[in-house]
Amino acid sequence: MKTNYASLFLVLLPGLSFGQISLDASMAPAVNSSIIYYDANVPSPPFTFAKSGIANTWDFSVLSPSTGQEDTVFFVDPASVSGGGSFPSATHATYEGGDESINMININSNDLTFLGFVGDPVGIGTSFPLSAQPPVAAMNFPYSYGSTINASTYYEVFTTGAAIGQPSIDSVRYKSTLYIDASVIAAGDIILPSGTFASLLERKINSNVDSAWMKGATTGNQWVMAPGFPSGGMDSAFYWYTDQSLEHMAHALYDDTGLHDVHYFKEQLTTDVNQIQANATSLIAYPNPVQDFLGFKGLNLKSIKEWSVTNADGRLLMKGTSGLEKLNVRNLSAGTYLFGIISEDGQLSSIRFVKN
Q1: pLDDT at residue 162, rounded to an integer
Q2: Residue 340 located in a structural domain
Q3: How far apart are CA 6 and CA 115, in angstroms?
Q4: Which of 254, 255, 286, 318 has the fewest Cβ atoms within 10 angstroms?
Q5: The domain containing residue 134 runs over which residues?
Q6: Which residue, among 254, 337, 326, 219, has the nearest Cα to 289 in the 3D structure?
Q7: Are strands 53-59 and 169-192 parallel, antiparallel or unpaired?
Q8: Residues 36, 192: Cα–Cα separation, whole Å
Q9: What does 264-328 look like in DSSP terms, one character per residue?
Q10: Is the pTM of this model over 0.85?
Q11: Of the ranges 40-54, 59-73, 129-143, which one carries the lowest mean pLDDT score?
């Protein structure tokens, strides 16, 4: 499921309500840990909740989670990530299972700052570090009822047309600008299957503007805007936090279709999550681009619990538990897709491929 870049780890100890709370750097997450959320997806009846005031009660224990659809967020040492050395001040690297990028975070006494990520935003087939320009604070400490964040940042990619499957184009420039508007709008108690906790409710509105330019013989060797650009989007999210951590314990995500994802705390784990990411980076799909059958290297077929193929919009197109000796993708339309697997021990790996 979609996750916000500022997602961090929490340790939940059931307790009584302690009124209004504030968050600070002492609540930073533990590296090499993970958190699992119940995924209620789009609850029925619809999930409604108070969005103002200081004496609220938010009851997630009445929701019915989707069986086998839990969300898992991992927190690893930035130095363990290929490309992480480009972020020397990062204290945490974080990603959700199925994500195509790893976010780099710095937590200090003043704020929680998003530094950039390691990923492949334009589909060249290789992940690489991209710095946020400038780095942007997601929380200023102490972060409490009434706190606000208004900021913007961007990243740029310069590559060749051949790298993205357009050999007639010499050069491509891609720029994505992100605008963040966050406010802590309410306080109260959150009720989870694991207990009741004093909580803050944050509303976050993210909007983005993406632009791409290309230059080559077909453009008279002049930079021109690529077809379909500029483009943009907006989504809003609500996050619940306790005074025990900087990790949200629940979220409700909205887009232009309305509420599309609700999840809430299930359990925490301390595992060798660096090994999970290492497995993800060793997975190779071939040939890539592909026309008929996709093969894989670095894949232990006996350990696969489930595999899936989703399109660029995140829509599930294929799913199964076997048949990966050669995956038949002949019926897929031309485009870019994400292949993901879940192993029997819960490890997650994914790789992007292009269908011609």
Answers
A1: 87
A2: yes
A3: 10
A4: 286
A5: 22-273
A6: 337
A7: parallel
A8: 13
A9: EEEEEE---HHHHHHHHHH-EEESSSBSSEEEEES--GGGEEEEEEEETT--EEEEESS--SSEE
A10: no
A11: 59-73
